């Protein structure tokens, strides 16, 4: 069960796409707000790479801890001054994933995680037809057995997309006017990104991980 609650006033007028605090520790990877010392648990991760992001709308520096199976826990610093999500590409190998807000002070952290095909992805055609993706939505489709261009587009600041295929995950940012945290596969300071690749007929899943209400974008294969 989830419940919408009043949240922190966002910086720079960029409002959160989702301001939801889980009332249960069970988590499906959807955007949610995690208060200090609170934890959520994804009972089972995928057996391939997944994309995790953490973000704070405050101008402070917080932290989250990720614990999965017998792996050594990973702590991520979440710097709100960067205005972009902190990315982490993770293979949980089917184990659970527990995320805890370990900030030293009362700093809320927004988190999300995407597995291949999670949620309800819309069809992604390979003939150049654009698919509009609002925050927390995804598209999935089979590629051709030849070189294709995967196109990402967004007019909005700090647009974030993850691309998954062949058991791997990649994360990209568009319209990044300033410094971005480490961990992004590639970034652009403009509206578009073209990724030429021979996907060899593999299925591709693209998800919009922008934390902002204004983070709409589009994806197409040609």
List the helices and strands and how they pair.
Layout: E1 2-4, E2 20-22, E3 32-34, E4 39-42, E5 49-55, E6 61-67, E7 74-79, E8 86-91, E9 97-101, E10 109-114, E11 122-123, E12 131-133, E13 138-142, E14 147-153, E15 159-165, E16 168-174, E17 186-187, E18 192-198, E19 203-208, E20 217-221
Parallel strand pairs: 11-13, 16-17
Antiparallel strand pairs: 1-2, 3-10, 4-9, 5-8, 5-10, 6-7, 6-9, 12-20, 13-19, 14-18, 14-20, 15-16, 15-19
Description:
The chain is mostly beta strands. It folds into two domains: 113 residues, Galactose-binding domain-like (Jelly Rolls); 100 residues, Jelly Rolls (Sandwich). The chain is 0% helix and 45% strand. It has no helices and 20 strands. It has a six-stranded mixed β-sheet with strand order 11-13-19-15-16-17, with no helix packed on it. Strands 3-10-5-8 form a four-stranded antiparallel β-sheet, with no helix packed on it. A four-stranded antiparallel β-sheet has the order 4-9-6-7, with no helix packed on it. It is globular.
Structural class: mainly beta
Strand order of the largest sheet: 11-13-19-15-16-17
The number of distinct structural domains comes to: 2
Strand content: over 45%
N-end to C-end Cα span: 40 Å
CATH uppermost class of the largest domain: Mainly Beta
